[in-house]
Design goal:
The chain has 119 residues and is mainly alpha-helical. The longest helix has 39 residues. The chain starts with 6 loop residues before the first helix and ends with a helix.
Amino acid sequence: MPRVKRSVHGRKKRRKVLEAAKGYRGLKHSTYRAAKEQVEHSLVYAYRDRKARKREFRRLWIIRINAAVRAHGLSYNQFVSGCRKAGIELDRKVLAEIAVTDPDGFGKIAEQARSALDS
């Protein structure tokens, strides 16, 4: 049976892990065993938090929209329902941006939503 020489591939594999662990504290940036474990955990956290970021931004947009529509005498769910009835097809991200940057324009949208609710 032929002899298998693994040093090049093994070194390459370990170097890849240690380069991914740059910036970690303690032995986690220099010791292969600790670095490997931490890199695996870091990849899991990154995957999880890419999903969580989307939820967090949606929550932020809803909070901003709710604060803006309450100034116009509506609640968030009334506003969303009124927008649907009025045919306003702006998503939460855009509505939150308008609420922050252009309060007068958002007021017009809120009035349209209110009139659609009343009719």
